Predict the structure.
Amino acid sequence: MCSFCNQHTISGAQQPPSGEEVKKTCSEAFDFIKNRKNCEIAFFGGSFTAVPEKYRTELLESVQEFIGGDGFSGIRISTRPDCIDENILEQLKRYHVTAIELGCQSMDDEVLALNERGHSSADVAKASELIREYGFELGHQMMTGLYGSSPEKDSMTADRIISLKPDTVRIYPVVILEGTRLAEYYKNGQYSVYSLDRMVDYCSEYMTRFENSGIRVIKCGLHASETVEGEMLGGYYHPAFRELCESRKYRNMLDGMLNEKGQYRVEVRPELVSKVTGQKRSNINYFSLKGIDIKVVSSVQKEEVNVFKIT
């Protein structure tokens, strides 16, 4: 349990599931999901390789009948960087685990120690190398705005992650949950947060850097949950956090293209219209305050964004 962690709140579960419960869930999903080859079974909400081996084996065995053939493509797990070794990877390979995500959180050792992570940045690098050697898909998870961190340290973490070349990354801005050490720090003034808007700026930049490096960002922001919203004291939470970041990315892109006041027609692919417009027309309003009127329209062009000045 790290300074920021309350897995009961995040996962919505109070007890770990039994193998039979997992099997029942997979059976229901098997009947419901038709395109199973593009789906995985995932064990999240904790450090999968840190649980007792007997229990881990029980969970892995409970899902084997649902993998391969016309079943699911494999198993995805999340775990700690210091809970990976050759024996564990051999077992995971035998049981058709295909992707391993490491909770890196930060690549600054001081930040890791302050947040009671119990591992170092060197553990992240070592585990990443081992996972690659065994042929698993590698994922990294980073947290932004941690106690003791800063935008500069978060930026360094993003750069260090890029250097380790994971296939995927998840970005989790800190959410302060009741019942955590971080909540105590927040209440006594030892830990403070900056605005959500600033965090959107930072995470938008990290997303762009990851994507430009060929790393898929598969999550940005804690998933929407009534449980989380009910236990949240502060931090950087929004039910559509990723969309805010993607809208900011396009706002920044347009900022570099629109140099003069006036009216502009912005043509984008159909799936990008809402992102370029911004949530509640935020990007439209942003440029309007600068004397720039933009009209975002759908286009079948191959380019991501085309801008035309209206004279």
